[in-house]
Design a protein that fits this description.
- This protein folds into two domains: about 140 residues, Alpha-Beta Complex (Aspartate Aminotransferase, domain 1), CATH 3.90.1150.10; about 240 residues, Type I PLP-dependent aspartate aminotransferase-like (Major domain) (Aspartate Aminotransferase, domain 2), CATH 3.40.640.
- Helix 5 packs parallel to helix 6 and helix 8 packs parallel to helix 9.
- It is globular, with a radius of gyration of 23 Å.
- It has 13 helices and 17 strands.
- By secondary structure, the chain is α/β, with parallel strands linked by helices.
- Strand 16 and strand 17 form a beta hairpin.
- It starts with 6 loop residues before the first helix and ends with a helix.
- Strands 6-12-11-10-9-7-8 form a seven-stranded mixed β-sheet, sandwiched between helices. Strands 13-14-17-16 form a four-stranded antiparallel β-sheet, with helices on one face.
- Keywords: Hydrolase, Pyridine nucleotide biosynthesis, Pyridoxal phosphate.
Length: about 425
């Protein structure tokens, strides 16, 4: 398609957009009495209007039923999480038995490492990407220390080549081969939070397995954003937060995946708790742990139903739409944003370098833009003028045009605000 940087063209794209109606399903903050242009769904998604009804339902059941809500609420609390299995499985490409919801992201990754990082004297190294999200870095360091290894020896970072912003697939595969028999675990972010690069999870997982390692993925920036086929890619485990592209609210419950090939392995260690025990026998209070079959067997504690309610509202919206439709719009609106940035670049003295890969196979809806000749003052201008975006040092702004609630007209309007901001800041 040939794009045009005009309001009329943007409105035409919106009129053709089958998902445009979902924009009205969300609550937008306002700046200067106008709805903001919201580019930070890769950090915290907007609140769906339907969320309140789901939370109110739990509050009403608590008020009217108290403890009996576990069994007699319209959505009984004791099996509330089971409502996620089918729709979440579609979103991440899994079997319903392979997914569950519990805890928060880094907690779940730690719990997965209990089961899947089993270092030995000769096979103890972890491969991750350079500049992984800090929480992952801290997790790796603490896990390695817990097992009695030195960070500088056990953690192997795949680095970007000099002068390049993204990690090459051939460098990932070469590093896996190089570490070889010493490799215990490959654990990488499926989408790099800084650049927005999408990794070839299928190919990397196969290479890790060929080297004799376990392969897991942090899908914080991937779930609800890109096409995932966790089961078919033979991934061992994965976890993701629900509050970015999946709009479940700040710090909310995490999703978790464990491949079915591990479900019947009695020798696989895990940290156990009451809620992961055999559902049919849970209230018999037996002394020996008998895990629920499937990913639910990794649960530990009673369900945080008030936290799960907003996530369920969002998951059911995703189920209505389907990932294919979301991805189709994602690619179109992200490409239009890219076009707008390039057009504005021609009209101002500054220059923009998009450090996110150009290939649609290697990006989701985030574009990370290096602003040559600009500083924090431009970001501040955008925020004061109703463009909610994200600044990363030294001078990168991350834009995420989430297809559920961003419009093509937003992209055009942003371009005009950006141009004016550059002219006024200088």
């Amino acid at each position: 398609m040939t794009f045009e940087n005009t309001k009329e063209f943007a409105k035409k794209l919106d009129s053709q957009d089958k998902l445009n109606k979902y924009r009205d399903e969300f609550i937008f903050p306002k700046v200067n009495d106008k709805k903001v242009i919201y580019f930070t769904g890769n950090s915290l998604g907007l609140q769906p209007k339907r969320t309140k009804a789901y939370v109110d339902e739990v509050m009403d059941d608590w008020a009217n039923l108290a403890v009996e809500g576990h069994f007699y609420a319209e959505k009984p609390w004791w099996d509330y999480h089971e409502r996620f299995a089918a729709p979440l499985a579609k979103i991440v490409g899994a079997l319903p038995s392979e997914v569950t919801v519990m805890n928060t992201l880094t907690v779940n990754l730690h719990l997965m490492m209990v089961s899947f990082y089993r270092p030995t004297k000769t096979r103890y190294k972890i491969i991750c990407e350079e500049k992984a999200f800090p929480s992952d870095q801290y997790m790796f360091q603490s896990q390695v220390d817990f097992h009695g290894y030195k960070t500088e020896e056990a953690i192997v970072e795949i680095k970007r080549r000099d002068g390049e912003h993204n990690i090459r697939l051939e460098d990932v595969l070469a590093k896996i081969k190089e570490v070889g028999d010493e490799l215990a675990l490959v654990l990488i972010g499926g989408v790099n939070y800084y650049t927005g690069q999408v990794f070839d999870m299928k190919t990397i997982t196969a290479a890790g397995h060929e080297a004799g390692a376990v392969v897991g993925w942090d899908l914080a920036h991937a779930a609800g954003n890109i096409k995932l086929e966790l089961h078919d890619w033979n991934i061992d485990f994965a976890a993701w937060c629900s509050y970015k592209y999946m709009n479940s609210g700040p710090g909310n419950a995490s999703g978790c995946f464990v491949h079915e090939k591990h479900h019947d392995n009695p020798d696989l260690p895990r940290f156990a708790g009451w809620w992961g025990h055999n559902k049919e026998r849970r209230f018999k209070m037996e002394p020996t742990f008998d895990p629920v079959h499937g990913a639910d067997g990794w649960q530990i504690s009673n369900l945080p139903v008030l936290s799960l309610a907003p996530y369920l509202a969002s998951v059911e919206m995703f189920d209505e739409i389907g990932m294919d439709a979301l991805i189709e719009k994602r690619d179109k609106i992200t490409s239009y944003l890219e076009f707008v940035l390039q057009e504005i670049d021609k009209e101002v003295d500054s220059s923009f370098e998009i450090i996110t890969p150009a290939s649609l196979d290697e990006r989701g809806c985030q574009l990370s833009v290096l602003l040559h000749g600009e500083g924090r003052s431009l970001f501040d201008y955008l925020m004061k003028n109703g463009v909610i975006t994200d600044w990363r040092e030294p001078n990168v702004i991350r834009f995420a045009p989430v297809p559920l609630y961003c419009s093509f007209e937003d992209m055009y309007d942003f371009g005009q605000i950006l141009k004016k901001g550059i002219q006024e800041v200088h």
